[in-house]
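Please predict the structure of the following assembly.
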Amino acid sequence: MNVTVGEIAAEVGGKVIGDVSVRLTGMNGIRQAQEGDLSFISSSRYLRYLDDSKAAALLVPPSIGEASVPLIQVADPYAAFLTLLGQHCPGRDTRPKKGVHPSAVIGDRVVLGEAVALDAHVRVADNAVLGDNVCVYAGAYIGDGVRIGADSVVYPHASILAGVTLGARCIVHSGAVIGSDGFGYVPGPEGPRKIPQTGGVVLGDDVEVGANSCIDRATFGSTVIESGTKIDNLVQIGHNVEMGRGCIICGNAGISGSAILGNGVTVAAGAGIGGHIEVGDGVTVAGLSGVTKSVEPGRVVSGFPAMDHERDKRIQASLRRLPDALREIRALRRRIEELENTRDGMSEDHS
Amino acid sequence: MNVTVGEIAAEVGGKVIGDVSVRLTGMNGIRQAQEGDLSFISSSRYLRYLDDSKAAALLVPPSIGEASVPLIQVADPYAAFLTLLGQHCPGRDTRPKKGVHPSAVIGDRVVLGEAVALDAHVRVADNAVLGDNVCVYAGAYIGDGVRIGADSVVYPHASILAGVTLGARCIVHSGAVIGSDGFGYVPGPEGPRKIPQTGGVVLGDDVEVGANSCIDRATFGSTVIESGTKIDNLVQIGHNVEMGRGCIICGNAGISGSAILGNGVTVAAGAGIGGHIEVGDGVTVAGLSGVTKSVEPGRVVSGFPAMDHERDKRIQASLRRLPDALREIRALRRRIEELENTRDGMSEDHS
Amino acid sequence: MNVTVGEIAAEVGGKVIGDVSVRLTGMNGIRQAQEGDLSFISSSRYLRYLDDSKAAALLVPPSIGEASVPLIQVADPYAAFLTLLGQHCPGRDTRPKKGVHPSAVIGDRVVLGEAVALDAHVRVADNAVLGDNVCVYAGAYIGDGVRIGADSVVYPHASILAGVTLGARCIVHSGAVIGSDGFGYVPGPEGPRKIPQTGGVVLGDDVEVGANSCIDRATFGSTVIESGTKIDNLVQIGHNVEMGRGCIICGNAGISGSAILGNGVTVAAGAGIGGHIEVGDGVTVAGLSGVTKSVEPGRVVSGFPAMDHERDKRIQASLRRLPDALREIRALRRRIEELENTRDGMSEDHS
């Protein structure tokens, strides 16, 4: 990257405040920027980082018009920064080479599409079918009968177990496990007895599964994640869950068995959804909350047990006033006692 | 599978309402059922799914007697369904073949029992001992001196580290780590200083460890999980934990170092148990709760800090009424003020 | 190990109560101790375990002076026990042998320091640089351009992805993932659209990353973990997080994207830190709490939303009294009604 402030401004349709001829040689966040780097801030409260920053120029919102470096005003500095990043700093291609590495082990009746890349120590079990351009990093496991759609990427040490199906353009990050047994037992005289987990997992197109996340296979039928749903790291998805299109499931969340999520549901970090619960289209579940009963479409819920977010906020605000309220109750009781004493005195007067 | 409704009914001792001659060719849940599938519902509230279902017949409880498809009435439709599933849809065997795959790497002084299966890229370090019929999937790691009892199964990318012992018929799911270092440090002038973690991990028979769960080795002695205990995915078990027989530990739960759990303890999803705490036999810890002090046998606890579940429910119910209560307190104060004003007026009258 | 109580006492500067000639052949915790084992207790409340213990002698604090076995009084029995453990029971060396195992696959332009150990099925991609004495266990993945400092240890199935940098003496436990994509999307007409994650991860010296923990790469620039910070198992660290020196991050914790932690921060088990939050030097975040706004240095916070711990404790104590308070409010209302009735009666008397 070697461009001027003026050239960058032209590219993103921004207005320059300052020297258009300053040369930019890299891009980074305000705190990590080195000499020559273009950076950005989205609000004037981050201007305080500018003193210690080596950034050579900043993308800023129109509300910021003065600083010690050239500014490029745009409506959405973060979006503009990301666009420029993709164009000027795409990164080196570090994907495994096309072809099958000699140390990969491929089973019987496996079908590989065009331009598949299987890196070192990949294991593909019998009957698997991999679409064109599928890229499997070193040490990943593709089980018996697995089907992976074209252009999907499987990172190191991901385990895609027997019978699982992935659509096109899926991304499975390192250590993710798709198709582990559902957690189901019946009580027995000798302790819990395992229920056979005979079903599968079906992912649509453009699904992303984060590092070390787990999606259990169904007890029967399929655990289903529909197209465009994105799952962060360390997420647990139980057997027979059905999740709609375009959901966002953030890190450390847990979706218990047989829960049904609609389309466009957002589950924030660390939240839990109970088993057999239905969560409607477009619902947002706040971070660290626990959903214990079904939620109507479009609602925002929080807390544990999760409830309407506005109501939860009122309750939380009340809770912070509770110690004062308990003192107030004691004070009121004393005042009532005084009133009662006065009344009793008066009654005696009247008697 | 190709049987009639009448034949299935005979098998489970059920009573048919409708046409006994309808042919069944598969089994699935009500929402995923295809033409010819036997399905089930456990309550009339699921009858609403029947309109959109292609299920050809349903296992139902005796309380349901009418539907658009043949019904087979049984006491426990889900249990009957699971039994039939095991008999009619056992699934294809997709386990690795018996024997040692040429790409597996076996150390010195390793002892392998009869009919062991070690798939591609398995690493067995020196001095390990694997019992008869042990099955190790591709890429799993068996550390130095590990002992695994007969008929155990280790899934891809599980790591069983040096010195760990597993009983018979254990199941270790993909990516699970048994024998990682306990998390122990002492403060030092240069920051936290690592305490050597020199102990091991001992699992009894029939223990199941979920995908990407972690069981730390003991600082000294052993972390112990007794026979029949079942651990779900993404569970963290700290160093020197001792867990009894037949426990059920659900997904995303965390058991801190040196906690002691009795027999038959259930820890629901996302719950945490603090360090050095004792949890008695048969205790149930509710989901998302946090146990901060020891719990007597047989109790059901919930909340954070966890307390008797009935008490927690009362407190939670009270909490939901708190905003109203605060309004009520303000109203009462005003009424008291009025009473006080009246009294003071009267006092003046009397004076 | 074969020493006398007297010899051990001399080694730790302790005072013996009882027979100095008793021979000690091992070391273990009080509950697991076998015949001949030295054990310890840190408080008299653990004396109750002594009856069922086979321990031959105990390290105890000076406050304990009587028991059925010889006692060695020292100021800090646990610290003394750990010191003795390192000297007398160091454990067998089970690390992989120096050198490159023939089944390891090394890319182009890789630089290996002196005495590096790469065990079976390790994959090192192009351009990686490993310092002297680096030890990589079987099946670990070292991505393109990764740099690992001297004396670091990488356990089985850890994934260190392209471009990540580790300092000296780091420990990466089994299944940990460093450099997975940050979780970033922009809404699009077809659903969430992935933001390219082009940055890296930089770990300082002496950083430890627990089993199956995940550290995401930065969207741009670097996710940074400074020297001496210790991360437990199953911890999620989002893109662009910056974490200072000597932090302790306990199991199941989650640090959301772009959060900034100072030096010496402790995050207890299961806690969550929200995105873009700043947590000052020396802060302690209690277990299971959720930090939703920035925290000043040195504070102890707990609860969700996290607040000053003392205030949270008062609120929690109040909460436990809430059901009684609600009853009290009802009782006060009745007493006020009575007072009002009396007053109204009096008013009528007076009228």
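Helices of chain B lie at 5-12, 77-88, 309-320, 322-350. Chain B has a mean pLDDT of 94.
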